[in-house]
Amino acid sequence: MTEPNMKVNLAGVELKNPVVVASGTFGFGREYGQFYDLSELGGICVKGLTAQRREGNPAPRIAETPMGILNSVGLQNPGVDAFIAEELPFLRQYDVKVIANISGNTPEEYGEMCEKLSAAGVDMIEVNISCPNVKAGGLAYGTKPELAAEVTHMAKSHSTVPVMVKLSPNVTDITEIARAVSDAGADALSLINTLRGMRIDINTRRPILKMNTGGLSGPAVLPVAVRMVWEVAQAVNLPILGMGGVAKSDDAAQLMLAGATAVAVGTACFADPYTPVKVRDGLKELAHKQGLESITQLTGGVRPW
Amino acid sequence: MTVQQRCTIVEAVQLPSGGVSMTFQSHGMAAQIAGPGQFVHVRCGEGLLLRRPISICSWSVEGDLIRMVFEARGEGTAWLAQRQVGEELDVLGPLGHGFQMEPQGRYLLVGGGIGVPPMLGCAKHTGEHNTAILGFRSKDNAMLVEEFATCCESVRVATDDGSMGHHGFVDALVREELERNPGYTAVLACGPKPMLRSVAKVAESFGVPCKVSMEERMGCGVGACLVCACKSADGHQKHVCKDGPVFDSKEVAWDDRT
Q1: Disruptive mutation site among B32, B41, B42, B49 for chain A (greatest number of A CBs within 10 Å)
Q2: What ipTM does this complex have?
Q3: I need a labelling partner for B65 at 20 to 30 A (CA). Which of A114, A211, A243, B247 fits?
Q4: pTM for this predicted structure
Q5: Domains within chain B, CATH numbers bracketed
C-alpha cells in the first residue's frame, strides 16, 4: 500500500504535515531546533508578538496542576520589529511554515503589525484575541463578538497573507465568537487558547502564580478542546487549527475527527521535546492502519450519536 | 548540543540530612558539561507534566557519570528520591550557564541549604585553594561537609539555630573571610534569594566579583516557554534556565518585589 499523504491545506497555506507547534510554547524555534530539524514540522506558531517589546509578568509564572499547567507569562516578547529583523531570518532557513501570532492594545495596532509581518513574508498570521494574561486587548477582544469582528476586519484589511483568529475558551458560547470572526472575513480559526485557572498554596495561602490566576493547558484541557472544535466546525465553514492538551497522536486524531484540519502541540513539549515529531509519526501510522490515502480524511470524520 | 537520554541510576544513597545523592550513567552528557553550576531537567513520573530542574553536584567525564544531590520537597522530587539503582531516568541536559572558573583562581564558595550541592562541583572541578562557607538550618540538615573538606583549603559552617558552627547566617562568615583575605578571585554562591542578596552585598562592599545561581519555577528548561523569569538590573527579564542559572550579582534586580 502507498504511504498516506500527510499534506494538509490550512486556508491556502500548504503544510507538509498537520502538526504545528503552539504559540508561546516554542519560542522562535531556536531552542527546540537543537533537538531536531525544524523542517520536520508542518508549521511553527511563534511566541506572541506585540507592537512594542514587552517584559511580561513577574515570576512565578508557572504552576503545575493535575494533568496540566497554569502559566502567566504575559506576552513577553521582543516586539514585532525585532522579530522580523532577528528571528524570522533564522526560521526562514527551514522548510517550515511560519505563523506569526500577534496581540494588540487597539485594533489599529493589529493592523500595523499585520502590514509589517505580511511585508516581511510570514506565511500566515494568527490573531490572538484570547490571551488571559494581559489586561489590555487580549481576552477582552476575544469575549465580545463585536470587538472580535472589528479586530478581525482590521487584521484582514492590512494583511496579504491568510489570517487565522485564535479563539478563547473562556466564553459561554464559542460559536458566537466564531461566527462573528468568520463573518468579518477570517481565513481560519485556531482554538483553544488556555482556560483561566488558579492554584493556591494551602500553607502560605498564596496563589502559586504572582498574577494570582493564569491559563490552563495540558492534557486536562483536551476534552474541552475537542468539544469546542466540534462545535465550531459545525457553526462555521472555515479550516480549524485545533489545539489544547495534545500529547500523543491519538489526541491529535480526536481533534481532527472533531473538525480540525491541522493540530498544534504545546505544553507536551516541556516534558518531551520530541512530541510534535512523535505525533506526526503516530498520525501517519494511524492513517496507514485505517487505510486512509490522505490524513485529511480524518478531518470532521466524527460520527456523532 | 542539548541531549535527552534515558539514564540508568548507578548509585542512590540516602544522606543523613534527609537528602538523596543519586548518580547516573550519562550517555555522553558528562562530557558536554561546560563547568559547575549547570543543571539537568529530569522527568519525574508519568503523571507530572513538568520536569524537575536538579543542579549537577559533580560529574566524571571518564566514568560518564553525573551526580545530583537533592531533597524530596514536593511530589516530583519525592518520586525521584524513591528511585533505585538500575532504574532509568529521562534526563535532559546539561542545561544552562554555570560558573565560569579560572583553573588558577581562588574562590570563596558559599552554599545555603539545597544550594550546597552545586558548590561541591565548583570545589571539585578547580584548584585546591578554595574556601567553602556552608549554611544550614541546623546540624541535622548539614550535608556534604566532609566532602568539601577533602577538596577545599578550609570549610566553615553556619547554622540558623547554632547547633553547628557559627550561629547565624553565612553572610557574616563571608564578611569575616573577606576581611581576613580580600584576595579571592570571586565569591560564588547558591542558595535562597535572601541569602544570595546579602552575600552579594558583602562581596560588592569588598570589591570582589560575585556570581550567584538563581532559582525560579521552571517549565521547558531550555528557554522556549519564558516562565522562569528573573528581572535583571537593566529592567529586562532574563530567564533562569537559559541565561542562567548563574548570573553576575550586579546583573540581578535584587530589590524587585513585584
Answers
A1: B49
A2: 0.89
A3: B247
A4: 0.92
A5: 3-95 (2.40.30.10), 107-213 (3.40.50.80)
